[in-house]
Design goal:
single chain, 52% helix, 599 residues, alpha+beta, five-stranded mixed barrel, four-stranded antiparallel β-sheet
Amino acid sequence: MAAPNKGRRQAGSPGRPGRTLALFLIAMVALTGGMFWSGHVTPRLGIDLAGGTSITLQAKNTPGKPNAINKTNMDTAVSIIERRVNGLGVSEAEVQTQGNENIIVNIPRGTNEKQAREQVGTTAQLYFRPVLTVAAGSPTKPQPSGSGSPSAAPSSSTSASTGDKAGDKAGDAGTTASPSASATSQGRAVTDALKADASPSPDASASDDKSSDKKDESPAPAPSASASSDPATAALEKKFTELDCTNKKARTEVNQSSAPKDTIVACGQNSGGEWEKYVLGPAELEGTDVDDAKGVLDQQRGMWIVTMDFTGAGTKKFQSITGKLSQQQAPMNQFAIVLDGNVVSAPSVSQTLGGSAEISGSFTQQSAQDLGNILSYGALPLTFQEQSVTTVTAALGGEQLEAGLIAGAIGLVLVIIYLVAYYRGLSAIAILSLGASGIMTYTIMSLLGPGIGFALNLPAVCGAIVAIGITADSFIVYFERIRDEIREGRTLRPAVERAWPRARRTILVSDFVSFLAAAVLFLVTVGKVQGFAFTLGLTTLLDVVVVFFFTKPVMTLLARTKFFSSGHPWSGLDPKRLGAKPPLRRARRVSAPTDPKEA
């Protein structure tokens, strides 16, 4: 007869239940300690339970696209807004369309609520435009002919056209010039810049610069002479001259009707925080050419910036435009990064650049990360106007939560009554396992709030209540397998071990089906239903953990006690009550006759 393999544990062997149980308890204590250490001792609640903010956005047609408001663009906007808000950690945010032109955004009350509100309606239309001219942001109105010194015009024109975003010289020069001279020079700067921008080559640009220098040497013409015969150029000159970038309303309305291929007037702040106004050429790159963007801290300069990586097509465009700009004179060697009509940065270019760029300015950590988040998820296909902002109270949700908790408590009590009446002593193991599962579920939900932004809503509470039945079902499967072994004549300790492989297969198959259903439900649904699916999937996984690492070891340890091993009538494992027919198999093997005389 072959000797048994001592290195391999035989089927039905109890193993080391004490060690398994100790590891589970250590993990449970660690999770509970982590919950208290993090300061989040309760799960984050969704808008239906904790209240929050409800924002109504109305879509507006994009300039140049009169029929842009359609189902496709509205669905795209909903998807982008949802990714933006949830990218900030405000999970369980509800974003849905209402009618043909409105989007409703419900944001649960939380630390990022204000930040999310600032981003939901931000269009994030990003364009890279060449700078044609720049001047101080204050308006300049021409005085009657004859006032002001003509000789001041060339000086002011030179300062305005050679200003740099990184410095304050242009703004200072434009501020100190006399009104009539500044208005005249700004009008001439716009005209000259438009002529230079229309030149097909750097040589032509250089020629225009020389002719412009010759003009600057001559006496300045009267203000009316600066206007071009082209009505569009004249209108652009007037808008640029009269624009007051220190006025918020003027900054907002200056580009509302412009298209990407238009030459526009825009506002921006220099490094000193002073407002400047720009004439910008047609867009050379758009936000769709940006592959990734994020806010990072520049260690060398000690300032927050936004870095951008371009797509393959965007890289080629960026190399082309920076190659052209690097051959121009200031300020026409600058390109403006325009976000929603405002210049956020206008760096100068001295050489051809590759497939990445950065936006620098007076960023804080939050503003840099916010801009990176917006650019990463893309621009909205439509412009939205905030119609209303209302505060949602949790009164109704609180009543529903209370009713749900009462229903869950009633269900739990009924389950416990059934377990006690039918399984008697075994019900203690089931109740302990339910308690362990409840503690694990609560602590993990509390930690997932600050971790991934999980928010508990009413459907999620329903999922947790349903999980009570799933968990109890696993205990019942195991207990019935043990009883089947006892009915076949085995004593408790071998019955516990032999029943486990059969029960384990059934529990795993059952939980796999439940988890698969939860996963499919989570993927194909949106909004609050996902909360139900997430909680159901989480509790199903925890059921496997509890049964394997708590229920089974506890059952093995209790099988060694006299109360359970002797088959006490209140243990739930009494052989007589279970219908087992003596003699038991172990007793029959021990008392088998071996005397040869009896044969």
